[in-house]
């Protein structure tokens, strides 16, 4: 089955994060493998500290926002952007899909929807650091950001690409 069709089913809904998602984040955390956490945070973050709890749900829906994917009432993925203070038209982006849902097109869907959201907030450039052996994420970046510049920096690859979400809207699912 086409993975895009799989995650396009109504069983997986996406929406902006809410403060009351915290409990669901805690439940998701217990389902994540060490590798998934390490890939996302570049560190072993086993416990949700107060700081991290705030970071997960405390967004202003302008300079910092996150989309969550929900299935069966559980948060199963999250994609987030942070506008760069020194370059307001650029934002750092990160995504996490829980292990059981990886490889089914959800990461791609989350990033596309996040890019649309960011585009509406005036974010034209998307950036991020990806571990150099994170082939799935690098493949995803290459497929979504046509003109992405990938710059090796030690153990990570720095990604910088133009957010042409408005153009992609024609090729993929429409921006909401
Ligand atoms: C990276 C991650 C977000 C990708 O999400 P996902 O739902 O697993 O990925 P998708 O199913 O949407 O795959 C997207 C594309 O990645 C590419 N891809 C997948 N597996 C790949 C692999 N082993 N090698 C290269 N490219 C790969 C393909 O282009 C794929 O599209 P296709 O298989 O439909 O043609 C997810 O695996 C994850 O959360 N990993 C742990 C955290 C992390 O690495 N976050 C990124 C750091 S910010």
Principal-axis shape equals: globular
The kinds of small molecule bound in this structure are: coenzyme A
The spatial strand order of the largest sheet comes to 1-2-3-4-5-7-6
User: How much is the average pLDDT?
Assistant: 89
Q: Flag low-confidence runs.
A: 170-176
Report the order of strands and helices.
HEHHHEEEHEHEEH
Overall number of structural domains: 1
Could you give the count of β-strands? 7
- What is the level 1 CATH name? Alpha Beta
In helices, the fraction of residues equals 25-40%
What secondary-structure arrangement, pairings included, does this model have?
Elements: H1 3-8, E1 13-16, H2 22-31, H3 34-41, H4 50-57, E2 64-71, E3 74-84, E4 87-97, H5 106-120, E5 125-131, H6 135-144, E6 149-153, E7 156-162, H7 165-171
Parallel strand pairs: 4-5
Antiparallel strand pairs: 1-2, 2-3, 3-4, 5-7, 6-7
Helix pairs in contact: 5-7
The structure holds coenzyme A.
């Amino acid at each position: 089955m086409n993975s895009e069709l799989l995650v396009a089913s109504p069983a997986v809904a996406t929406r902006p994060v809410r403060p009351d998602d915290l409990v669901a984040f805690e439940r998701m955390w217990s389902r994540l493998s060490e590798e998934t956490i390490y890939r996302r945070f570049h560190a072993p973050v086993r416990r949700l500290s107060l700081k991290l709890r705030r970071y997960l749900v405390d967004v202003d829906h302008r300079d910092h926002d996150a989309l969550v994917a929900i299935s069966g009432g559980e948060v199963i993925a999250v994609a987030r952007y942070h506008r760069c203070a020194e370059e307001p038209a650029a934002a750092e982006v990160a995504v996490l899909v829980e292990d059981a849902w990886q490889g089914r097109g959800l990461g791609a869907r989350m990033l596309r929807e996040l890019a649309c959201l960011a585009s509406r907030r005036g974010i034209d450039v998307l950036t991020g650091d990806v571990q150099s052996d994170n082939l799935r994420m690098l493949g995803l970046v290459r497929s979504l950001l046509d003109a992405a510049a990938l710059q090796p920096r030690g153990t990570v690859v720095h990604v910088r690409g133009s957010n042409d979400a408005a153009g992609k809207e024609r090729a993929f699912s429409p921006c909401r």
